[in-house]
Amino acid sequence: MMLEPDERRGIDPKAQNAVMDQVFFPIVGIGASAGGIEAMRGFFRGLPETLEAAFVVVTHLSREHKSLLPDVLARFTPLEVEAATDGVQVRPGRVYVMPPGFVMGIAGARLTLTPLGPAGRETKPIDIFLTALALDQGERAVGVILSGGDGDGAIGVKAIKEHGGLTLAQTADGDGPETADMPLSSLRTGFVDFGEMAELMGGRIAAHVASYLAAAPDAQVDVVPREPDAEQLTEIFAILRRQVGHDFSGYKPSTFVRRLQRRISVVGAAGPDAYLKLLRADPAEVGVLFRDLLIGVTNFFRDTAAFEALATQIIPKLFDARAATDGVRIWVPACSTGEEVYSLAILVREHMLTLADPPRVQIFATDIDERALTVARTGRYPTAYLSAVSAERIAQHFVVEGDSAVVAKAVRDLCTFAPHSVLRDPPFSRLDLVSCRNLMIYLGVEAQQQLIPVLHYALRPRGYLFIGMAENVTRFEDLFETIDKQHRIFQARDAIPPVRLRPMSGSDTSIFQSAGQPHRRNVTTHAALRHAVESQMLSEFTPPHAVVTRTGEAVHYSSRIGDHLEVVPGQPTRELAAMARKGLRLDLRTALREAIEGNTMVLRDGIGVALSDGRLQSISLVVKPLTTPGASEPLFLVVFKEAAAPVEKERQQALEANERDTALQGLERELNVTRERLQAVIEEYETSLEELKSSNEELSSVNEEMQAAHEELEASKEETQSLNEELQTMNSELTSKIEAIDQLSDDQATLFEGMNVASVLLTPDLHIRLFTRAAAQIFGLQPSDVGRSLRNFSAPIPMGWLLDEIPAVLAESRPSERTVEGADGARYRVQLMAASRTGRRMPGIVASFTNLVEPG
Q: What distance in Å separates the CA atoms of residue 711 and residue 560, rounded to the nearest whole number?
């Protein structure tokens, strides 16, 4: 790990880490809201006594709040708990708590504290610390996310996972988490190794440390070896290649082995041989290993060369021949916490700045995780997280606030974030670019076969698809052509995704099947005979027919359909009306439109069709909805019924000659009427178009206002959440104080019970506040007498002099002592002492009475 020396403190992190390597211990960063006391209690009470680790607690606190969290945590754990100080060396067996008013980091295993500016509180302190911890400690970093009320920590666990550390997030149990937003947001990033109850996290960390030590170069020789041999590596490569279709044999061996060892450590396998058995038996573990191997260092422009290729080859084409009134539409599905979205937005904005009057740009960013979208909408990231972003881009597209950087409003305004499932919800449409990077590696083959046609459908004709470096669309070459194979940039073909309709004679198969899916059939003799008979009848005696979608694309043809269709010159098409023969095309197109729009049956009789041999065929055309249970889209059946036998063209012309003149006059009248109606329709269309443009502008304005209102609501939500966390913290600390006061009260009562000294705590006007048992015997006091004046009780000595002596004792804060004799021979030494007071509390006097006359 290469880090720059910390010149401010004169610390060389390389040298510091070299010293730490001699005695390994992990540094555990714990992120939680300050009110998550129960979660922290469970975590620290569940730590094994043998675990040698350092713990750093980061919470959300305002600068004005004086935290008692170190005192509270000290009651849960025998470890030393202290408030973190700037430059302190992190040592095992200690808990460091971030103080309020600071942002904490770590460099060279020493904590760094940066005072907050006058603007207010840092909203993402957990992300900042965990990111710094990942950069500083690498594989020795452990990130723990406990109860909390926002998305803070999601970016931090990504950084730790990507640098080889261990990540855990709290799952629900009987004691929490009190607020689940923070752990859920981290879990849904896919970068958390274990979702675990707080009490069990310590055992997970201890097992990870033991596995790490066993894999270390200086581990004991009798420990099970952790580094796989060449034969084991070859089999692992084969398993990955067979299941995920990716060959890792060409990857850098040291990197592959390090990631493999980490995975062996996380699952707790006894060694490479045991882990290889797990891979053979558990396909899910193969997928997890595949994703772990693909994790790279977090940055905005991940795979920088690919983004540069997109910026130079594709983005300028999106703006070609686009006027200011046009739009450029981009979709980023599975956007997570927004880094890919903002990377694209920065590239697009940089190109827009070169144009005099650029078109409007809309970048739709979607994900199924609302909490990740909240992080993305905020656009706030640790500055250490922007290592791949140049200083010029940071200055132009970010607003740096302390240790955080916020994406500039001009960039955020290009992006619209919304919850959406790319596999379940309807896709966006008319898109110029879809950036779907590193999503398919999380999907199985069937889900990928569903996803790629959806992305093709969402794109405009000749739109672009941008995917991850470990992904490909080679199985869908009929949908996409390659633009840049190295950087995974593809362009949509003008094609219709192929589907196959289920056989008309059976109902036991699914409606749509992939081309390579086997079709299971009943093999009994009767079923086979029935199928053969029905197929023969369908092919020979039923009229020609076809099945089309609601867009008019043919998905099924019957036999003898070629009499009514012909291949048209130009680009191949599957549109049924475009392939109809002369004389049939217009009627077919009209009938299809009526049937699709009305979802009803349409009949056209007496249509003359010119056959290929010159004869004329009169047919009846039927278009009706096709009832198909479970179909993903409406289908329509088109039937060509032959009304009579074909006749020679000359004979037909002779039969029609007598009718032609009469029909011509009628046609001229109809033509004039049609022209008038067409003109009226055109005028109505133009009026409607203007109204639609106006409505679109209003909707755009409303959308912008709603987005601004949403941002304000998000800011208000964060402030409310911060206030709620501070109130929870104060409540926890008050509870702690009450418990301490109760304990002190019990201790005082016990102490007073054991004392044989007659003492009375009085107010300046001699009202009783507290007394001991010996004093009760002298004055005859009962517990109910607290608050009454001592002068109301009989005493063996006179008490009037007390009112004169007390003011002097209080004023000079000195004790007073005198011997007082009573009328019956009683003799007491009376000592007066001012009780200490703080704030506005009423002053008090402690009067102690010692009997100088021994009882007879």
A: 62
Tokens matching residue 724:
């709620």
**Separation between Cα atoms, residue 330 and residue 345, nearest integer Å:** 10
User: Over 48-78, what HEC string results?
Assistant: CCCCCCEEEEECCCCCCCCCCHHHHHHCCCC
- Alpha-carbon distance of 430 to 629, in angstroms, equals 29
Measured distance CA(142)–CA(137) in Å, rounded: 9
Distances (CA, A) of 93 to 49, 110, 184, 223: 10, 15, 29, 26
For 288-337, give the DSSP string: HHHHHHH-----SSSSHHHHHHIIIIIHHHHTTT--TTSEEEEEESS-TT
Residue 446 region, left (φ>0) first, then alpha (ψ -120 to 50), else beta?
A: alpha
> Exposed, middle or buried: residue 252 (CB in 10 Å: 0-12, 13-18, 19+)?
exposed
Per-residue confidence band for 35, with pLDDT thresholds at 50, 70 and 90: low
pTM: 0.53
pLDDT tens digits for 158-169?
A: 888 878 888 999
- Take residue 477 and report the two structure tokens written for it: 């070459």
Report pLDDT digits (tens) over 777-809: 788 888 888 888 887 887 787 777 777 788 888
**Contact call for residues 575 and 565 (beta carbons, < 8 A):** no
In this structure, the chain runs to a length of 856
Report the distance separating Cα 448 and Cα 441, nearest Å.
9
Cβ–Cβ < 8 Å for 577, 549 = no
Other C-beta atoms within 10 Å of 230: how many?
A: 7
Q: Give the H/E segment covering residue 556.
A: strand 554-557
Rounded to an integer, what is the distance from CA 60 to the centroid of its chain?
20
Reading across the β-sheet that carries 545-549, which strands appear in turn? 554-557, 545-549, 635-642, 616-626, 602-610
